[in-house]
């Protein structure tokens, strides 16, 4: 008997007992749909997390932060000038593995277009900033060395700022407009592109505008932060807004609000950090008041939480598939003890044990395949529900691989749960089976 | 070479630690074209003998040859092959598959001999019209009378053109008129050259055959021609 005939017999058997077959499939349906959904969820979390990692600067991003001085060093803290522009110069000069250095000053100021106004944190930066913070090419241009050298009143603003201050203009049209910062006029030389999540790009519903302006950010959102920057040259920041507060300060000695670096080659990450640290130890005169903050641990934590989610979700879904398989086995056992006489007749007319085995296996696998396909259908619905529940940056993403894996797993469950009933059926004694009532 | 050749064949069942000698060194030969009846009261061993002859079981000891195959200690798979090629069964309770229609029931043995579907259908249809059920091919067994069911069973036994047809109390579930008609079919089949072995407890039925073998306590007690 060939497989095709076995399959025909199996499908007829399933069709003859529709409700019973459906019940036995239900476990597989639920198992497959939950496995697909779990895989989609973890894929979503993974994509969301990776996009997040990219937006915050990637693994190459290193931040020089202030550190509480230890008690033994307390007497010397005055010796260290803290984080200054000299740090940046020292790193540029003597840490070749650090490709970009971005010192930063910031200042809360009133910004206005003459049409709309708001209060924002303004940041004074060098051109390296755009590389370290991973900005995409803007409308217009980034700030340049010339802007910094001459202390020009140029500004680059984020997409949301452009929309906020010039609500009637397209962001690209804002280039060339005058931005008032504490009433001083700045020329907008660049408008950054809108940073958004994959699913925000896809969704056409402006109602769910997550990129919207909200000054009391609920949590750290790199997308929103990058959309709401106002950037001016470092030197302009210093002379226009910061120089007056402490007359002793010069541009070289003013304490920075942020100092971030980009490691050129991740293959030499450790050495690069050593180089930066060595440079900083000199400028800080040996006082241990700084630290290099990397994303390694943070990213590792995210990676391991992705793995944990995948594992636990997969495990739960796998258990439900195993339960589904047991359901099939149960039904197959019931169905063969109901069909002992039929099997006896088939044996009497010349079926071999092998033929009976194939027939029962075909039936069991058919149940699993149909259940698996129904599960795929069900998972489309389930995922729509999950999309409503799951946080937007982790919206589930269904992949073909996930579907194939889940259905494959279901078929495997059908295969293994068919073996025992099929063996039992194929070992029936023809005489006893024929006499069975 | 006879179609059936038994030499000192015994079949012993073990129930607990008790041995039941269902067949006790039986010698038997059946030639091609014979019409043989095996009779005996219940428990005499006639069913066991039919199971051995019908290749449903292998003997415990002795030599058994069916249609040139030595099956003295054959495996279930080997028995199944011989069964499929050489043997047709007709049972007392018809043993049709209720969920298949007439033509599919007749076709069943061919499914296991690996014929292509079109060829199977062609041969089954031929047999169905031979046994006079050409117009009932799409019916389920439940829609047929007992006599028609038994004809379907005979059709199924004939479809792979076997060497021997075994009939186990084929008239047991039928009224006497229908029973006579079925027995007439066996006679006709025998007249056209088929070897038939009829198992019954009723010597009147056995009278349609040309050779009667009487079994008692697992042994052949006597043989006669009616």
Helices, strands, pairings?
The complex is a heterodimer of chains A (437) and B (226).
Chain A: H1 3-16, H2 18-55, E1 61-66, H3 85-94, E2 98-112, E3 117-125, H4 128-132, E4 139-140, H5 145-150, E5 154-157, H6 159-165, E6 178-181, E7 184-191, H7 198-202, H8 222-227, E8 230-233, H9 234-242, E9 258-263, H10 269-283, E10 290-294, H11 296-338, H12 340-348, H13 353-389, H14 400-426, H15 430-435
Parallel strand pairs in A: 3-8, 5-7
Antiparallel strand pairs in A: 1-9, 1-10, 2-3, 2-6, 2-9, 4-7, 5-8, 6-7
Helix pairs in contact in A: 1-13, 2-11, 2-13, 2-14, 3-10, 11-13, 11-14, 13-14
Chain B: E1 4-15, E2 18-30, E3 35-39, H1 46-53, E4 61-66, E5 69-70, H2 76-86, E6 87-90, H3 102-111, H4 117-130, H5 146-158, E7 164-168, H6 176-191, E8 195-200, H7 203-206, E9 211-216, E10 219-224
Parallel strand pairs in B: 3-8, 3-9, 6-7, 7-8
Antiparallel strand pairs in B: 1-2, 1-4, 4-5, 9-10
Helix pairs in contact in B: 3-4, 3-5, 4-5, 5-6
Question: Can you give a write-up of this model?
Answer:
The complex is a heterodimer of chains A (437) and B (226). In chain A, a hairpin with a 4-residue loop joins strand 2 and strand 3. The longest helix of chain A has 43 residues, at 296-338. Chain A is elongated. Chain A has two domains: 3-54 and 301-435, no CATH class; 59-294, no CATH class. Chain A has helices at 3-16, 18-55, 85-94, 128-132, 145-150, 159-165, 198-202, 222-227, 234-242, 269-283, 296-338, 340-348, 353-389, 400-426, 430-435, and strands spanning 61-66, 98-112, 117-125, 139-140, 154-157, 178-181, 184-191, 230-233, 258-263, 290-294. Chain A has a six-stranded mixed beta barrel with strand order 2-3-8-5-7-6, surrounded by four helices. Chain A is an alpha+beta fold. In chain B, the strands form two sheets. Chain B has a six-stranded mixed sheet with strand order 6-7-8-3-9-10, with helices on both faces. In chain B, strands 2-1-4-5 form a four-stranded antiparallel sheet, with helices on one face. Chain B has helices spanning 46-53, 76-86, 102-111, 117-130, 146-158, 176-191, 203-206; strands spanning 4-15, 18-30, 35-39, 61-66, 69-70, 87-90, 164-168, 195-200, 211-216, 219-224. In chain B, helix 5 packs parallel to helix 6. Chain B starts with a strand and ends with a strand. Chain B has a single domain (33-57, 86-224), classed as Rossmann fold, CATH 3.40.50. Chain B is of the alpha/beta class and 226 residues long.
